[in-house]
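Quick log. Single chain, no ligands specified.
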Amino acid sequence: MQESTLLQAYREHEWELQRFLARRLGSVHLASDIAHDLYLKLLGATDHSDIRDRKAYLFGMAANLATDHLRVEGRRGVILAEAGTSVWRQSDELTPERHALARAELRYFENVIAGLPERCRQVFHLNRYEDKTQGEIAVILGVGATTVYKDLKLVMDTLLRARRRFRATEPDADSGGEGHEK
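-> predicted structure:
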């Protein structure tokens, strides 16, 4: 099998590419990985004999791969930083007040669930606590899958509205106010 002209250019300029990528990425090891990615890309490429300056084209491809890598890593860093701060913030906020508020919210939801029709409560329990699928619940309760879907949707919509009501009545941390809907 004949090598493409770009693959031949890669072999001719491999060390220059490595140095170029290392300067651009700040890491010899990362440069090696990106150069390998370029090599794999070139293995699957069709022959581009119409390219006049194969070296420039090759270095352009390498630069694009390096830029893509840096962009992805930058995004990943932002996402990890956001996730890290929210995780730490949550654990930092586990104060007695937050614990009491969570217990109050749980009692509030228990009351909301208790006010739902019996079948809706059964569907919710089977789905959320026994990890049953909607199809399995339909068989257990002897109803259609559409009925299970509608019951589960009613429960989830009801809980979402209840959560919004509870959060709307939550006392401000600054005001020190008390009281929730019961």
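Helices lie at 5-12, 14-25, 28-43, 54-92, 96-114, 118-128, 134-141, 145-168.
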